[in-house]
Amino acid sequence: MRSIASRMSVMSGEGALSVYARAKELESHGRSIIHLELGEPDFHPGPLVVEAVAQALAEGKDRYCAVAGVPALREEIAAYLQRTRNISASAANIVIAPGCKAALFFAMMALLEPGDEVLYPDPGFPGYASISLGLGAVPVPFELSSRNHFQPDLSEVAAKITRRTRILLTNSPGNPTGTVYTDSVQRGLAELAVKHDLWVLSDEIYARIIYRDNYVSMLSYPGMRERTLIIDGFSKSFAMTGWRLGYTIAPPEVVPALALMAVNTYTCVNEFVQYAAIEALRDRDGTTPRMVAEFARRRERFVHDLNEVPGFRCEAPEGAFYAWVDIRATGTSAEDICRILLEDAGVAAIPGAAFGPSGKDFVRFSFASSVENLREAAARIMKVSGAWQGTPAVR
């Protein structure tokens, strides 16, 4: 009897995409839906980036290219990291991938043996646990709790390290909480990694979208250079979601393994997009800072409006573009809240359990949408809030 490989039964999808599918179904029947479920900026790359991709195509840059990525792009990424994060990285240690998910998957595939344990944040990006399970590893969550302002608890992380622990996964700024790890927390995580000789996967996809201070990478701490892999890309900071372009910065001994997996899967990332990415990194027209400034404006207004909703409590995120709302005071489950919001109010949001068990009392909204949409969403949410106040909803 033919069957699907057993590894597929332990992997999972993403709650955001299932909510999106239902929202699109409602739209197809004429419903007005405000999409606050997907982590996709409502911006587009700047004109210079669009011109660069057109020029690259006109010049015939649509061929096979270097497996690890176009050398000029890898050099530009190294310069970009020095300029924006004050970290030194060699172009030789950078491998381009078709998106951050692919970069994450291949990094974990290169490092994990069956039975190895992966410490990861909960709530967190669903792929962390799913990929671990698919590779035969054991995902071990550490909680990001509201009691601790969603910062990792170093004592909990330390207590969960065993002889089987192989990878410590960090995500700052974080999805879904918007948390930026403090210096003391990151330094403590680095010390634990050194003490127990762990690999560190630092998911830094939201590193440019930050609302306080300067960003500090895990690679900045003592002992991290030889054990840290940074996962980053162009989807969030440069609004290039559909361009599917990510990269890994890895220690020298890991790079050949990542290149070998590229050879055996995607061969190389399309050449013309890589040349456009060089222009995006240079950002000569200041597209990224303007986008982040607009996110900051939306954050202030939307968080205020959400906190006006009966039973909602939301801390302002320090990074990324998500509002992580505690709904315990509503007396209603997050799943029911999201069902009411979508079916009755036409507002698509994600129940927090989609990001792990620790998120069960929360709802995630993306504020990567226009101010007008966010204001209308808040008004709609307020109108249906009677459903969890024991009074009829206003329609």
Notes on the structure:
The strands form 3 sheets. The protein has a 7-stranded mixed β-sheet with strand order 2-8-7-6-5-3-4, sandwiched between helices. A 4-stranded antiparallel β-sheet has the order 9-10-13-12. It has a two-stranded parallel ribbon with strand order 1-11. The radius of gyration is 21 Å and the shape is globular. It has helices at residues 15-28, 47-58, 71-85, 100-111, 127-134, 154-159, 183-195, 255-264, 271-282, 287-307, 334-345, 371-384; strands spanning 34-35, 94-97, 117-122, 138-143, 165-171, 199-203, 228-233, 246-249, 313-314, 322-326, 347-348, 350-351, 362-366. By secondary structure, the chain is of the alpha/beta class. Helix content is 38%, strand content 14%. The chain contains 12 helices and 13 strands.
Short summary:
The chain is of the alpha/beta class and 395 residues long. It has helices at 15-28, 47-58, 71-85, 100-111, 127-134, 154-159, 183-195, 255-264, 271-282, 287-307, 334-345, 371-384, and strands at residues 34-35, 94-97, 117-122, 138-143, 165-171, 199-203, 228-233, 246-249, 313-314, 322-326, 347-348, 350-351, 362-366.
